[in-house]
Amino acid sequence: MMSFISYLVNGISLGSIYALIALGYTMVYGIAKMLNFAHGDIIMVGGFTIFTAMSTAWCPVWLSVLIGIAVCTVLGVVVEKVAYKPLRTAPPLAVLITAIGVSYLLQNVALLIFGSASQSFTSIVKNIAPVTLGGVTISMETIISIVISLIIMVCLTIFINKTKAGKAMLAVSEDKGAAQLMGINVNATISLTFAIGSALAGVASALLCSSYPQISPYTGSMPGIKAFVAAVFGGIGSIPGAMIGGILLGVIENLSKAYISSQLSDAIVFLVLIVVLIVKPTGIMGKKINEKV
Amino acid sequence: MKKTTVNNLITCGIVLAFFIICGVLSSAGVLGSKLSGLLIPIGIYIILSISLNLTVGILGELSLGHAGFMCVGAYVGGVFSILVQNVITVSWLRISLAIVIGGLAAALFGVLIGIPVLRLRGDYLAIVTLGFGEIIKSIANNIYIVKDINGLHFSFASPVSGVDAATASDIFKGAQGIKAPQDTTLVIVVIVLMLSLIVIMNLVDSKTGRACMAIRDNYIAAQSVGINVTKYRLAAFVVSAAIAGVAGVLYSHSLAVLAPKKFDYNLSILILVFVVLGGLGSMRGSIIATIILYALPEIFREVGDYRMLIYAIVLIAMMIFKNAPYFKNLMEKIKALPIFEKLKPKQKVKTAGGESK
Amino acid sequence: MSEAAPMLEIKNLAIQFGGLKAVDNLNLTIKKNQLYGLIGPNGAGKTTVFNMLTGVYKPTSGTIYLNGENITGKSPAQINKHGIARTFQNIRLFKDMSVLDNVKVGLHNQKKYTGIEGVLRLPRYFKEEKEMDEKATELLKVFELDGEKDTLSSNLPYGKQRKLEIARALATNPKLLLLDEPAAGMNPNETADLMRTIRFIIEKFDMTILLIEHDMKLVSGICEEVTVLNFGQELAQGVTTEVLNDPKVITAYLGE
């Protein structure tokens, strides 16, 4: 029972990281109607930035993380401006292929700079003893992941529902043309969305690399894809959906690792996705979109 | 003769000419062992790209799990060959049977995966095919088959229990994969490639192909003229899977050892790169792109390190050039210049001839 | 299927999207060889009616009979096989296919060779492909498009794209043709030309046509009977000239 609880807590911790990444997917999908395949690789770039800042430039932890988040944010906006913006009117297939191209590009740039071997990452929360609660030991990384994710989700929800910029994002995701007619700067809003999504990826990279202290050019792709699964699971375009989907997916993954097979846990995660998409393609919280005829 | 037929014949001619010339040069020793060794993989990759082009270019759906179907064919065909190694000793017969069995197995997976997957479209379909590809790879990574005096033992865990150790021999060893007999020869690859090419081109230039392209261009309009959308989507998907499976059989029989990790997401993407750069829907484009993109980095080693990077940049640039409104207008203007109007038909023949040398 | 049955009979047709009744209690009867108009202000639910008739939307309630046969709730492809073909308000051609191939896709269900016969190039493939080419060319001639057979359909000028869409619909050999704003975006000359073509289609193909139109000149010029929709409900129905002079209809169009 104790071990079950510890698996569960670790699952929630991993899931809250997925949720952060899934938020980026969901926001971008909602507003630009595209699957940003490169989102996972932005996490990897964030991880390497933090890694380099800490190990090569000897920056303090807080500064390294801030630099990592800043690099991710800028990268997300640049990618949108250079690669995705010219394709706003292009067929979805072209956009998807471009996104795959960007993902491939980021991976290979990292490969050329850092090589393909995994480097060990020093946790951002060094020397803090794990907490023991009623017989269950929980590491500091786990607690920090959960707390930071929760804070961010609350702030994001408030931002979107209460601020002007947040409402503009909602409006653009509903109808670009109408939003423009209402005087909303659509390009700026889309940039803002990419910036926020990528900044969240930056936060996620710090948490992910601390919990799993290794980094390689491929670090981002699997969590990225899984976070997309989480976003779909929760209902793409829905912010609470991304949070619930992320946490559920993290729990499913960790429990199946513990009780079924650690090697097949990825397969199980994908199986979840496939079942969800086939039974309820709109996810838990999503709404149905009809093609206009 | 119809224009399409002529074009298809030219495409077949390019492939045949390329392999005959290279084959002759290789046996004459001009080509060197390193380049000669590239011919079989090039042939296999061409089969993979034309089969993926059927899904992506003709049906208009992005499948990111092509390596998965290749994996099914590779291992089913490979295990078959290992099992009958001592019964059927004629290698061409053995691999022919393996090709049929591997292709059918991949087709079966195509049906099983296609039925749920093809209820989706676009991004969702892409991500689900990616998921299936990863599932197939993960499962293959955990398969253990051992043969002993009592027959076959199958397990998802190692070591396999209940095996008579004295007579045991490994057939499938999880992450280490299989050791299939090396039956693949250049002639067999070229024959299979030509057959696949003809099947795909004939299929495209028929009612079935037109139905698929109609679905690609406008889903709702295709339904409105009475096209059974599900049926044709599944048909194209399954044919594509089966041919990828056949390529897989050739692949597993061309290597000494084949581990499942080879069939990862990156392989699917690599094939997609060939297809996209060759031009969606153009079989000839896929063929030429595969030859060039596969061979060049191998020949120029210094390029090798940067090849993935270059692919990625070209992939993005290509999509932007072809689809961004600014470049689209620019291209229309260039095309409208009188010089190009005159040059057009000539240019085509020239590239066709140029490739064959 | 009885001889006396009307070509199309719609009974109490209704559809609801969430809480919104997009079309409510619509009744309509179209006789064979009739040219019937469905008109009404923007957002009145005309295209929604087309989408229900062609199976794109499933009606919430009500029934649709084609030639006496209940086709309510069937899939778009099945409904086309039963004999309804349509065009779209926002043109939906197969844009990366040639003009000829667009029409050949329309002929799809009339030829029986299988995919395997196609791959193996058996005799029936050649015979039926040739028949398809001839039939498609013949149809294109009707719309004076046979000179542009090999052009990519998206490269055609707007007016010709509308015509090609009609040709493609006719290729499916329908009993009833639904035209969604065929004159949209056309100049008066092109509209006049279109009116002649529509009359010609009725005679030559023994066709029944239901059309949605905004151009009142076109409607009063060729439609024998019309139904006016407003906010999803029938506002008036009957002989065109009478309906168009009905004060209720004028108010709906021009406001109070």
**How far is the first residue's CA from the last residue's CA of chain C?**
46 Å
What is the distance, rounded to the nearest whole angstrom, between the alpha carbons of the first and last residues of chain A? 55 Å
Coarse morphology of chain A: globular
**Stretches with pLDDT under 50, minimum 5 residues of chain C:** none
- Total helical segments of chain A: 11
Report on this model:
The complex is a heterotrimer of chains A (293), B (357) and C (256). Chain A is mainly α and 293 residues long. Chain A is built from eleven helices and four strands, in the order H-H-H-H-E-E-E-H-H-H-H-E-H-H-H. Chain A has one domain (2-279): ABC transporter involved in vitamin B12 uptake, BtuC, CATH 1.10.3470. Chain A has helices at 2-32, 39-55, 61-84, 92-114, 140-162, 164-174, 176-181, 186-211, 221-234, 239-259, 265-279; strands spanning 119-120, 131-133, 136-138, 214-215. Chain A has a two-stranded antiparallel sheet. Chain B has one domain. Chain B is 73% helix and 4% strand. Chain B has helices spanning 3-27, 32-58, 66-84, 91-117, 122-140, 186-204, 207-217, 219-224, 229-252, 265-278, 283-299, 301-304, 307-323, 325-336, 338-356; strands at residues 144-148, 151-155, 169-173. In chain B, helix 1 packs antiparallel against helix 2 (32-58) and helix 2 (32-58) runs antiparallel to helix 11 (283-299). Chain C has a six-stranded mixed β-sheet, sandwiched between helices. A four-stranded antiparallel β-sheet of chain C has the order 2-1-4-5, covered by helices on one side. Chain C is of the alpha/beta class. Chain C is built from ten helices and ten strands. Chain C is globular and about 60 Å long. The chains are: A mainly alpha (293), B mainly alpha (357), C alpha/beta (256). Chains in contact: A-B, B-C. Chains A and B meet through helix 4, helix 9 and helix 11 of A and helix 5, helix 10, helix 13 and helix 14 of B.
